[in-house]
Amino acid sequence: MADPVVIATWPFGKSAVEIAGKQLADGKPALDAVIAGAKAVEDDPQVRSVGFGSLPDRIGRLTLDSCVMDGKTLNCGAVAGLEHVRNASAVARRVMEKTPHVLLVGEGARWFALQEGFKLEMPHTLEGIREWFDRHPDKKKDGEKKDAARVIHGPDDINVDISEFNHDTVTVLGLDKSGSLGGVCTTSGLAYKLPGRVGDSPIIGAGLYVDDQAGAAGATGVGEEIIRIGGSLFMVEQMRAGKTPQEACELAARRVNATAVRRGKHPANCAFIALSPKGEVGAAATLKTNFEFAVSIGGKVELRKAREIGPEM
Ligand code: SD4
């Protein structure tokens, strides 16, 4: 019998590890527990980067990305660009359980959710919309006189650097009493993303990867950089090769730094978490992310600050 452990990204991950930790203590499977934990963050309108109430894309659409993975069976499911359905992680789980596929996107993902009995709901909150207007990149471009956001006209509007609008994803990894691992990653993606943009969070191997025989890993930060290095699969393969979760996360931060430097795009602004089948946790981030993560070990919940890794110039 293993001692349950949960790790989740960012301070808002604390509620996720509290809920998941209790479920694991009651003997629930890892995947059930981490999805229950992630749901609490998705349902919290104060969290402006996960679930409803988040900051929408450049034209005001709020779309959700999520994936889930079971370490015992390697079963996984995902949705990307899901609109008007509250709990993207629950839909991702249904994709895993009810379809022969791994990833459904956009209209198809919503259609599937409706077939599965999920409700259509209004995703915006007044506070979310207000913040979206106030911080919109077009406002900055045109000076403060511009009150409302414009539509996207052409190349100049499309190739806008929105990495400063990077906002936070909840990734939750858990180890259950039977020694099995489960993971979930759920987000509304980058604020002001172009319509149709998909980040790392619903991509198995990028935002999340889980294998009982090696470990579980997840990511948060600028999804383009995480996809570029296959971040989560990279970490799990490091653990398979004998690295600790901490070493695996630091290697991922080094890799993402190295690719960013090579492309002249530093800082990369990414953070990584990992959990081994023995229950050891690890976390690392690129510089100036101030990345904190939540852990629940033996029923004790705490926030920890991740080690930041600078680029090797
Ligand atoms: C994305 N990785 O869509 C997500 C956003 C995020 O901290 O996690 N930001 O790129």
Hetero groups in this structure are: N-hydroxy-L-asparagine
User: What is the H/E order?
Assistant: EHHEEHEHHHHEEEEHHHEEEEE
Q: Report how far the terminal alpha carbons are from each other.
A: 45 Å
Tell me the structural class: alpha+beta
How large, in whole angstroms, is the Cα Rg?
18 Å
Helix content: 25-40%
Number of helices: 10
Low-confidence stretches: none
CATH superfamily descriptor: (Glycosyl)asparaginase
Describe this structure as you would to a colleague.
This protein is α+β, with helices and mostly antiparallel strands. The protein has a single domain, classed as (Glycosyl)asparaginase (Glutamine Phosphoribosylpyrophosphate, subunit 1, domain 1), CATH 3.60.20. The chain has helices at residues 13-25, 30-42, 88-98, 106-115, 126-135, 137-142, 155-158, 223-228, 231-240, 245-262, and strands at 5-9, 63-70, 76-83, 103-105, 170-175, 181-187, 208-211, 215-221, 270-275, 281-286, 292-297, 300-305, 307-309. β5 (170-175) and β6 (181-187) form a beta hairpin. α9 (231-240) crosses α10 (245-262). The structure holds N-hydroxy-L-asparagine.
